[in-house]
Every structure is written in structure tokens, then in C-alpha cells.
Amino acid sequence: MSTRKLPFNKAEMMQRIRGFNWGNTPLGEFDTWSPTLRCAVSLMLDLPHPACVVWGNDLHSVYNDGFAALLGHSHAQGLGQPCRELFGARWSALAPVFDEMLKGNRQNACVNPLTGIADGSETGLSFSWVPLRDEVAQPQIKGLFCVAIRLPGPDGAGRPLPDILDGSFLGLAERLARAGIWEWDIQAGRVYWSPAFFALFGLDPAVHSASVECWKSILHPEDRDHAVLRLEAAVRDRTPLFNPYRIRLPGGGVRWIEAYGDTMCNEAGQPVRMAGLCIDITERERLASENVELQRLLVDHRALEQELLESRERLEMALTGSRQVLWDYDVSRGQIACDWRWGPILGYPPRQRIHDLAAWQAIVHPDDLALVLSAMEAHVEGDTESLYSEYRLRHKDGHWVWVVVRGKVVARDAHGVPIRLAGTITDISQQKRLTQEGSELLARLVALLREASNPEVQLTSPAPDQNALNGLTRRQRQIMESIAKGMTSGQIATQLKIATATVITHRRELMRRLKLHSAADVVRFALRNGIGCD
Fold it and tell me: Is the pLDDT of residue 136 over 60?
């Protein structure tokens, strides 16, 4: 064994590891590995002894050249394989031991993966395994670190076997897991802390002594009582210790610790000793705290998003119902942006847009353009508090659509010059039409009243048939009465709570029955017959 030439040196083995297609394994590409895994692999390659690292749910293997030599002909296919395939028939004997270590129930084991036996006498090597804890992603055991040490005797060339619990490999495990070992002789009152434990708690072995009192003194005041009670309960009830708490570092700052331990009793059942380890979980707690805050912010964001969505829906309904359009004018670039309602108002599809000032001016009625530009200039110059203008725009079919434009300067540059205006455009064509109809009807009514006051003026319409008058429906009489009072079709529809088109239909029918030819004839007939004169 000692004369076998190893197949690779460290540099060659690292190159082989880096060149392996790890993307086909759950470990992922080498450059994405956890810092803990990469650190363990680097330390493994530095060791003069055969060593390997197994990692992940299926314990995929990475090893150095010494371990490759032990694998022999299996080496070519072994890299990256899960342990159950790497160790083949021996796996049934190894699996229970590995499972206990991965669960945290064992801190080390001496198991020979090449023979399946515990003392390793068949190969002259002792295979020592310790758990690897990933403190970056999740503070839990993710893999195992194995070192093969030569046994004393002829096969081991007389080299002594180091104590795995007190030697450098335990220190390696502590560093990788950011942990510290402790032991408490309950009856004698003596406490042992490993060097890594002192470092974990920020203590100087030359200044501080290992004791329960020293441990209590650096506990965070808010956690001290609970931590002590949990320790006492584990001793009293002979139960495993699980004790998360905070410590106040002598140099300042706070660190989160998670302590594990087990109580050992004498033949009489009395607790005599407790041993365990403490792990730094500060990073995990920080990530958990950040995750809680992130979840809170996410909930708040979703609530604001929902509120914004509801507000937008209400705005959309209000704008659509009132036939209003939002507009935004970039003064410096001469760019105009309108929402989707702009197109339908002028007979275009919703996607139709007005993009610049020239295109907008081209559809403004020539008689209105000067007044529109004057109103815009007056507001930009600060002469008016807000922009208000009524004018006509050309419809796609050629007729004119009346709109009212409201707006205001919403942004200025460093010198106070307006650079952006925004507001609404409202279609008031129907309102203008009703107003015009009302004005025309009012003028006709005035003329009729003057005519009625002149006894020499006679009705131009022929005398109606009384039977036709009696044949009018109640609704038609209501409409005639409303017309006589000077109401427009739209106002009559509102008063009677019917559609404007229905009013128009009834009006035409009653005019046909009474042989009347105009609205003026209807008014004259109503006044002559005392309809609407109350």
C-alpha cells in the first residue's frame, strides 16, 4: 500500500474535480457550490491522508488522490457517485451509521467503507467520519467528511493513530460547522471547553476559565433565565438538550447560539456528566429575520397593489362613463399622449393615438384653433390657474365633435419653466346638442306666445280630428304636455324615466295622428286645447 503510486497529485485532482460535469448531479456546477462544501473539498485536497467528502441528500462523493488509490479500479467511475453506488454491497452496513450522523445523533464514527467493518483491520486504516454543517444556506448537516488514518502495527508502519476526538480533524469539523465542543462533569463541577468553543463565545482562554458561571455571565439578559431553565430541565429529566439563546460578546455585539447536549448517568441513574456542542446560528437568525421583514413588505406591497388596482378600476369606470380621456403633454418634445378612450371619441379604434402637437392641431376646427392656442399660452405663462377650453375636433366621418379640455402644469424645470401638462378631455357633443335644441325650442315658444297674444293670428294647421285627439295614449299626452312646457326630448326622457328614442317615437306618432307637421304645431295645438297650461 505504501509503495503504490497515487494516480493524481493535488493540482491534477483539483483539475479533475473542476472538469467533472457536476451539472448532471444534484450538487450543481462547481462554481455554485456552497462555501462550506468548497472549503471542505479544499481542505481534503491538502491532507496527506486518504480523504473524501460526501454531500447532499444522496451523499455524492468527492475525494483526493489518496482515497482514489484505495478505490482502485472503481476510481474512474466513482467521482460524483452517490455513496450507495460508490460502496456497492457495503452500503447496507454503512447506511444506518451515516443516517445517525446526518440526523445529528452522532458526532463521529469509525467505519471502513471498503470492508463494512468498524475496526478497519483488513486494510490497516481507520476511516473516521464527522458531519459537515452548512451554515450559509441552511444551518443543518448536509454531508460527511472522512479521513483514513494508518493503524499502528506492521500494516501501519508503526505510526500511532491520533485520537480523532481531540486531534486536528475534530478542529476541522468545528471550523466547518462554526461549532464548539463542551463537557460538564456535574458531580465534580468541572467544565471543559474546546478551543473552538472559546473562540465561538469570544473568550480568551488565558483570561476566562471554563465554568457554568462564566457561561451564564455572557448570556443575553433577555434569554438568561430560559437558557438556564432548559439546561436544568435536561439534566433533571435526562432528556436531550436543545437550547437556542443569544450571548453578548465581550468585544461588543450579539451572537445567536444553538446548544445540543446529552446527559449521562451512573448505575444508580444519577446524572454525572453532560456533553455536547454549541453552533453559531447568527447568520440563520439574520436570514430568518430578514425573511420575516421581507414577507411583511411583500404583504404590504400586495395590499398596496390591490388598492392601486381597485383605484385604477374605479377611475377607468368613471372616465369611461363620463366619456373622458386622460392626456399628457411633454412641452419640451412637443409630444402628446392620450389613453385608449381617445380613439373611440373620434371614431377610431382604441389603439389610435395622437403623438405630437402638429397632428393634434390638424384636427382642431379652424375657427377654434386660435382661441385654443391662446388659452394654452395663457396658462403656460401663468396668467390662469388652470387650463380650460371648449372647441371642436374633426371626427373620422367628417363631422365635428365638441370637447372641453381641462388641465394644469404638473412639472417645471429648475428655472420654473413648465415642461409637462396633464388633464382630461371630455366629449360634450350631446350636451351641446341638447343646449342648442333647448335654445331653438325656447325661441319658438317665445314666437308662439307672441303669436297667441295676437288675436289676428290664426293657426296654420288644419283643425284636428277630435276622435284622433281622444285616441292618444296616456304617454303621448304626457309627452305633448312636456313639449308645451318647453322641455327637450332628453329632458322629457329623464322626467318620465324612459329612453330618449322612445320619446321621439311617441312624438312622431302623436304628430301623425293629429296631422301636425312640426314641433311648433304641437305647441300651438297644446296651447289651443289647454294642454300644459296649468
Answer: no
What local confidence, expressed as pLDDT, does residue 455 receive?
A: 55
Of residues 206 and 293, the one with the higher pLDDT is 206
DSSP H helical ranges for 167-255: 168-177, 195-200, 212-217, 224-237
Burial class of residue 221 in the structure, from the number of CB atoms within 10 Å of its CB (0-12 exposed, 13-18 middle, 19+ buried): exposed
The amino acid at 68: A
Q: Which of 135, 110, 106 is nearest to 121 (CA)?
A: 110
pLDDT value of position 246: 93
- Which DSSP letter does residue 354 get? -
- For residue range 24-38, list pLDDT tens digits in order: 889 888 878 877 788
Distance separating alpha carbons of residues 487 and 491, to the nearest angstrom? 6
* Nine cell digits for residue 234: 435536561
DSSP state of 45: H
Q: Which residues contact 276 (CB under 8 A, 6 or more apart)?
A: 181, 182, 241, 259, 260, 261, 262
Higher pLDDT, 266 or 368: 368
Burial of 507 (0-12, 13-18, 19+ CB in 10 A): buried
Question: Across residues 422-444, what is the average pLDDT?
Answer: 74
Task: Say if CB 98 and CB 113 are below 8 A apart.
Answer: no
Helix 489-496 and helix 429-452: axis angle, to 10°?
100
**What is the pLDDT at residue 319?**
57
In this structure, the dihedral spanned by the alpha carbons of residues 494, 500, 505 and 507, taken in order and rounded to 10 degrees, is 50
Tell me if 307 sits within 8 A of 299, measured CB to CB: no
Lowest-pLDDT choice from 200-214, 338-352, 379-393: 338-352
* Model pLDDT, residue 222: 94
pLDDT in tens, 456-487: 544 444 455 566 667 778 888 888 888 877 78
Radius of gyration of the chain (CA): 47
Contact (CB, 8 A) for 182 and 194: yes
102 sits in which H/E element: helix 91-102
Spell out the residues 6+ positions from residue 58 whose beta carbon is closer than 8 angstroms to its own: 26, 82, 83, 84
Q: Which residues pair with 148 in a beta bridge?
A: 127
- Rounded Cα distance between 356 and 183, Å, is 81
Q: What is the pTM of this model?
A: 0.35
Distance CA 29, CA 33 (A): 7
In contact, 341 and 350? CB cutoff 8 Å? yes
